[in-house]
Specification:
By secondary structure, the chain is α/β, with parallel strands linked by helices. It contains 11 helices and 10 strands. Helix content is 38%, strand content 23%. Helix 4 packs across helix 5. It is globular and about 65 Å long. This is ABC transporter ATP-binding protein. GO terms for molecular function: ATP binding; ATP hydrolysis activity; ATPase-coupled transmembrane transporter activity.
Amino acid sequence: MDYAIEIKDLSFYYKDGTRALDKLSLGFEKGKKIAILGPNGSGKTTLLLHFNGINTVQQGSVTVMGRAVHQSNQQWLRGKVGLVFQDPDDQIFSGTVWDDVAFGPINQGLRGEELNNRVNEALRIVRMKDLAHKAPYHLSYGQKKKVAIAGVLAMDPDMIVLDEPVAFLDPSGKRSLFSILDVLNQQGKTIILATHDVDLVVQWADQVVILTEGRVIAQGAPRLLSDPALVEEADLELPTASQIFLPYQELYQQKIPVTVEDAQAMIKQLLTR
């Protein structure tokens, strides 16, 4: 299988001895939309920080685009894997939006027209071109999130990794964000995100990975989130559609729906019997 990222027997310990990842092995296919779920402390962020070298591999291996991750290839790695932090204020620091988005490409050696084109295209994709010369601290939280994504896009990575991307976003902000991510995925980019939002995941993801205590307890299609025992073990919630239909499953003898569309189709079928 053609993996964008492959992880084998990855373990990670913090300086106080806390084990954050425990012999974790999995692979992410190129061009897919992948969601990593799990409770707080499950290892999601620790894992993401390995993908572009912020966390150094201690035990096991991480391979990106067929190349093993190690300290000597971090510059190459960060050009391949763009990481968007949960809080955009941890990522935005320049005097204007344009300067902030340009920071990464400048460090890649871009100048002149090529730099302008790269930055302007990134801002166009996130619909922030009109605010290019505005100070970031005057922006809304959702706008800052878009600037952080634009800063990653301007480096033209093959993969975009986002940590809790919908945290503190209103419904309009969520729709806008995932519209952008879908466009990027259609361009061939692999999108990986960590989240607690199961309803978002079942509507959006191609592949789901569930972590608890630094271990993978399940991976596969989003439908696995309709398994009550698994969801309870992972300290998550069933998707809303599954919660509604679960008590009445014996009445219709079919799989529990996981998305709103699944539920609507099942209701229509039941009403036309």
